Amino acid sequence: MDIEERINLVLKKPTEEVLTVENLRHLFEVGAPLQHYIGFEISGYIHLGTGLMAGAKIADFQKAGIKTRIFLADWHSWINDKLGGDLEVIQEVALKYFKVGMEKSIEVMGGDPKKVEFVLASEILENGDYWQTVIDISKNVTLSRVMRSITIMGRQMGESIDFAKLIYPMMQVADIFYQGVTIAHAGMDQRKAHVIAIEVAQKLKYHPIVHNGEKLKPVAVHHHLLLGLQEPPVWPITSEEQFKEIKAQMKMSKSKPYSAVFIHDSPEEIKQKLRKAFCPAREVNYNPVLDWAEHIIFREEPTEFTIHRPAKFGGDVTYTTFEELKKDFAEGKLHPLDLKNAVAEYLIELLKPIREYFERHPEPLELMRSVKITR
Ligand SMILES: Nc1ncnc2c1ncn2[C@@H]1O[C@H](COP(=O)(O)OP(=O)(O)OP(=O)(O)O)[C@@H](O)[C@H]1O
Ligand SMILES: N[C@@H](Cc1ccc(O)cc1)C(=O)O
């Protein structure tokens, strides 16, 4: 596969941003080690945003010949008060639920879970050099910048937080350097950590990634944040500014009821959540159901997506590109209920192997039911 094809795989949907494509091309050209990583807090059930969006990109990275790694951020979850802030519970959930849930998600998106390395944060934290890296980074970042970056842990600026939470962003940057990551991957909400990493890499006393004597910059790949199904806090949205702000806040999240479909949800739950979803007729700018169609169903184009309707409502219709579907919806030729039902059916089929796995192996979900999901 040539370099342009490999770059196109990295750029493929749901990628929203690559910092920068030139540096990525350079990594390929000089034959640098291609070490990817994506980190997750261990906080609750895996939803379509965390499982399928990350899983899809992991599949693409593997096809592009990049080594893939999932970083199970147990210490970070403890700092961020997840699962009652109990490190032992967090580690148990990481190894017995989260790992297998991500493996299954990667598989349904066409990747090979056996080629993904899973690393628990506490394994690398034990090494003394890790903390030296954290301090080195901290000496190159201002306090106000650290405070602005707490959004990477789902916290808001101005929120009252304990001091440990200010160490977290520096740890996330250290995780990149310490693991020799050349391709740091996450959803768009994590970009602040990666921008710090790219800048600070140039300022440290030692350089974190050296290849054949050359100091390389890490590359950041950010995927689209899948919208949650809930209604936005204000409607209609009247300005571009307001639109951007709302979109950033309205990502699918397990903490918002009816926002998320979980990877193990039953067909009935999926149908019910979609039936209640925010999906006004003709609305194509802010529409979570269309957002899911674009980033999950039409990730590959052309693809055949058939919407079944009774003859009196126009009969079956098949779309091969997202643009065709969007156009019909905008013109009122496709009813929200028909779109919702078809997206629900697609997801039920896509998630079937995961559901069946958890039916055969109920222990991970039993464990999840026994833990306290906080925040
Ligand atoms: N809706 C989403 N769409 C795509 N990626 C997501 C989404 N939500 C989270 N991610 C990504 O998954 C990774 C883990 O994020 P995080 O732990 O915040 O997810 P979460 O389970 O949705 O958390 P929370 O429900 O507390 O917001 C990050 O890279 C993040 O950008
Ligand atoms: N901040 C990430 C989790 C994370 C933690 C450490 C990392 O090195 C990377 C990612 C989130 O909230 O989803």
Rg is: 21 Å
The residue ranges in which pLDDT falls below 50 over 5 or more consecutive positions are none
* Sheet having the most strands: 6 strands, mixed
Query: What's the CATH class of the largest domain, please?
Result: Alpha Beta
Strand content: 5-15%
Helices, strands, pairings?
Elements: H1 3-11, E1 15-19, H2 21-30, E2 36-41, H3 48-63, E3 68-73, H4 74-79, H5 87-108, E4 116-120, H6 121-125, H7 128-138, H8 143-148, H9 164-178, E5 183-187, H10 191-201, E6 210-211, E7 214-215, E8 219-223, H11 240-249, H12 267-275, H13 288-295, E9 305-307, E10 317-319, H14 322-330, H15 336-350, H16 352-360, H17 363-370
Parallel strand pairs: 2-3, 2-5, 3-4, 5-8
Antiparallel strand pairs: 1-8, 6-7, 9-10
Subcellular location: Cytoplasm
Main location: cytoplasm
Binding site for L-tyrosine: 37, 168, 172, 175, 190
Question: In words, what does this structure look like?
Answer:
It comes from Pyrococcus abyssi (strain GE5 / Orsay). With 375 residues, this protein is an alpha/beta fold. The protein has two domains: 3-223, HUPs (Rossmann fold), CATH 3.40.50.620; 240-259 and 266-350, Orthogonal Bundle (Tyrosyl-Transfer RNA Synthetase), CATH 1.10.240. Helices cover 48% and strands 11% of the residues. It contains 17 helices and ten strands. It has helices at residues 3-11, 21-30, 48-63, 74-79, 87-108, 121-125, 128-138, 143-148, 164-178, 191-201, 240-249, 267-275, 288-295, 322-330, 336-350, 352-360, 363-370; strands spanning 15-19, 36-41, 68-73, 116-120, 183-187, 210-211, 214-215, 219-223, 305-307, 317-319. Strands 1-8-5-2-3-4 form a six-stranded mixed sheet, with helices on both faces. It has a two-stranded antiparallel ribbon with strand order 6-7. A hairpin with a 2-residue loop joins strand 6 (210-211) and strand 7. The longest helix is centred in the first third of the chain and has 22 residues, at 87-108. It is globular. The model has no long low-confidence stretch (mean pLDDT 95). The structure holds adenosine-5'-triphosphate and tyrosine. Tyrosine binds at residues 39-41, 71, 73, 76, 152-154, 172, 175, 190.
